[in-house]
Specification:
The complex is a heterodimer of chains A (about 90) and B (about 200).
Chain A lengths: L25 H5 L9 H4 L12 H4 L3 H16 L8
Chain B lengths: L3 H12 L8 E10 L4 H17 L3 E17 L2 E13 L4 H10 L3 E7 L10 H68 L6
Antiparallel strand pairs in B: 1-3, 1-4, 2-3
The chains are: A mainly alpha (about 90), B alpha+beta (about 200).
Chain lengths: ~90, ~200
């Protein structure tokens, strides 16, 4: 890395945040074939405070499971299990 | 745990005599209003069943969740009863059933889903209740931790106060002694005849 005088000093290993890209898909770890819209405790962690679906970048979900998750969340929203907007 | 694959295979066996009849399993989630009399509920259940039976459907499984809070009011209701059905029926007749469910009065909302292959029916009502209990225990843990922290703080404050008071106590007699010493010194000075002021 080229040293730049405007750059902040490098942080120690404990201070540094883990790279979000290094996360592994929680659904792949469980070998999930289908994400159910009825599984409220399973879906809830992937929805933020305002009811938006969390970005893949932050949760580490793979594209295949993110698509399944999206359909599950939309179905759960339609049936009133999850909020559209808080 | 019941799975749809077994029922599907059973359907294939029965389908041998009705080869032209195409049958699939559909999952139907129904929300109906919550404060409902038992009579009305039974009548509504009969009505729902009649819609499906008219379409020549057979019930595979039923999962009644019971009362559940809604994330937003649907038709003015903040709570609803939830029932999930698994029906084996002709896809061509799905539209009719869908329409009649839409029209029927007691139903707040319904949703038809075609479950994927090798889908295993899980009773999510139990899962949800278990999760609620776990979450309660988590909340209790947090509350306990907070209380412990508060107690620690209070104990630390009490210690500090005790220390301060002891310091004050130790300071006061010193001051008295010094005051007495000063007074004695002044008296000696005054009584001393050798000094002329």
């Amino acid at each position: 890395m080229i040293y730049n005088k405007f750059m902040p000093p490098a942080k120690s290993a404990t201070q540094r945040r883990t790279d979000p890209r290094l996360k592994k898909c929680p659904f792949c770890l469980k070998q999930a074939k289908y994400i159910d819209y009825k599984d409220y405790p399973g879906i809830k962690p992937f929805v933020d405070y305002f009811g938006n679906i969390m970005k893949r970048y932050y949760t580490g979900v793979c594209l295949k499971h993110q698509k399944m998750l999206r359909t599950a969340i939309e179905r759960a929203r339609f049936l009133g299990f999850l909020a559209y907007r808080k | 745990m019941p799975s749809l694959t077994t029922s599907a295979s059973a359907a294939n066996e029965t389908a041998s005599d009705t080869a032209d009849r195409d049958v699939r399993v559909y999952e139907c989630a129904i929300l109906y209003s919550c404060p409902i009399a038992q009579k009305d509920e039974a009548a509504l259940m009969k009505e729902i069943d009649s819609y499906f039976h008219e379409a020549g459907a057979t019930l595979v499984a039923k999962d009644a969740w019971g009362r559940r809070g809604l994330a937003y009011p649907i038709k003015g209701a903040k709570e609803a009863n939830v029932a999930i059905y698994y029906w084996e029926m002709d896809p061509l007749k799905l539209k009719e059933v869908d329409q009649s469910l839409k029209i029927s009065k007691g139903i707040l909302r319904h949703l038809f889903v075609k479950p994927p292959k090798h889908y295993q029916i899980i009773k999510y009502a139990d899962v949800y209740e278990l999760w609620l209990k776990e979450r309660e225990s988590l909340d209790q843990k947090r509350a306990r931790e907070r209380q412990e922290q508060l107690e620690e703080r209070v104990a630390a404050q009490a210690k500090r106060r005790a220390k301060m008071t002891t310091e004050k106590k130790t300071d006061k007699p010193d001051a008295k002694i010094s005051g007495e010493a000063i007074a004695e010194g002044i008296e000696k000075l005054i009584s001393d005849d050798a000094i002329d002021i």
